[in-house]
Amino acid sequence: MSSAVSTSTHTSQAVLSLYRSLLRTSRRFEGYNFREYAVRRTRDGFRIHKDETDPRMIEMLIRQGEEQLAVLQRQTAISQMYKFDKVVVETAPKKNIVPS
């Protein structure tokens, strides 16, 4: 029973670490649209599978996530070689909106 709990904890930590790494890497895109797409896709992918309990499926999803992380790392490296002009939503001043 103890090993099942530690395995579950290890898996949870691995999933959380992978999620954070994917988000961190996604935020390194130079282009706003690429960056937002990668962040949204990461969040949506984890949200879809948040209730998964099958250990084999979880391991497969972790492997897929690690592959996606490697792809993102390559893509962000390439993205940083090319500078993009900021889009309107990035350059617009942030206004303090007071609820009425």
UniProtKB/TrEMBL annotation:
InterPro entries cross-referenced by the UniProt entry: Complex1_LYR_dom, Complex1_LYR_LYRM4, ISC_assembly_LYR
GO CC annotations on file: L-cysteine desulfurase complex; mitochondrial matrix
Highest taxon listed in the record's lineage: Eukaryota
GO terms for biological process, alphabetical: iron-sulfur cluster assembly
An example Gene Ontology molecular-function term: cysteine desulfurase activity
Domain Complex 1 LYR protein residue range list: 13-70
Family to which the UniProt record says this protein belongs: Belongs to the complex I LYR family.
Full protein name: Complex 1 LYR protein domain-containing protein
Protein species of origin: Lipomyces starkeyi NRRL Y-11557
